[in-house]
Amino acid sequence: MILLRKKLLWRIPIALFILLLALFFIASYSKQSAFLEQIRARGEIVVVTRNAPTTYYERHTGQFAGIEYDMVTAFAQYLDAKPRFIVKDTVDEILTGITKNEADFAAAGLTITELRGDQYIFGPTYQQVRPQLVCRRDNKKLPKSIEMLQGLDVLVSANTSYVERLQELQQKYPKLKWRQQADWDTELILEKVWQGKLDCTVTDSNIFDINRRYYPELKSVFPLTEETPLAWVLPKNEEPLRSAMHDWFSEFKENGKMDVLLDRYYGHLDQFDYVDTQRFIKKIKKTLPKYRTWFKQAAKKHKLDWILLAAQSYQESHWNPRAKSPTGVRGMMMLTLPTARQLGVKSRLDAKANIFAGARYLARLRKRLPKQIKEPERTWMALSAYNLGYGHLRDARELTQQLGKNPDQWIDLEATLPLLSQKRHYRDLTHGYARGSEAVYYVSQIRDYRDILAQSQKQKKKK
Asked: Which are the catalytic amino acids?
């Protein structure tokens, strides 16, 4: 009897603990459900962000883009609401907006830091970046270590994670000094460094990777710390919203959608050719004006983006109407003789005719693709078919499916295309051997040129 009582006394606290735990989860779920109902009733979720190529921006086509824009839009759909974006100029203004409850959360490429953790809570981590020192590559005082920063004019945007990192380093290097600018964002400071008006600044690796294509003289000198996580930032009292974010993101990541976004915005930035980028920027100014009108007319006629078409032409011929490859393709869009005849081109050296024919051919390839393939994957696949041939693209899609991947996603297809040159894979495919790696590189280069050209057109409008 005494033993039985002891067992009952032991089981009661466990049962009570399980009951309390269940009640806690029920309460948490009820709070989240109430919050979601509130969002649905309101019909919108308000997000504060900043206008930058790594977050949220308007394309030259008038459409909005950016990894934060796409993620927020997907999350809003999960909440059965519409996103409303409030754009601020600096990180300081963004965090102030959260403090004043101007928005439900901030999605602006913000780093998780200890100081921010005292004032806010964070959503799930979606990307890892590394803060690094950035200077002009021709700076005669280019530092090789933190100790060598003395005497250099280092400027960072105020109240950013970079200030916190520098303050941490200052404890080890007391002579380390820098300046802060409250009304300048990181992109503007990078431009000032590129112009030679500042010696150096600090920026995250993702921001540097994108901006060095616009300012090729910029150089990452050395990282300041290890990788740090990016996350959305919420007010302290928004636990139900954070819980909903984690539920959504868990599914979003598991389905591979986060990987698709990272590939969409950063997948083509792995290789950077300083000389090639510098040459391209010069040709935008000197050579493109001769052909811009024809690119615009051809793109409009065939429902294409003229900047993409111009970027493709540069990859094909460097805008040389007399270009010729060892395989015999010629002209601005490097047409084969059979393709040119099929498209009614009398002379492949006729720049206008070549551009219009190339646009027509690309549009035709894009139209042939299965209807379920969405943009921008549809365009990337059409470009790969332009380079490789539609039959080889079909083979690559078939092989992608055989390997258990998604043939409608470029991130999976670009991993499969190089396999077309391996006999164990191509011997069972309809069209056999192909240099699939070249198609991957081809698309990557065009994406890069397109982004640089689009940015140059924005800068041109500002002047």
From this structure: 316
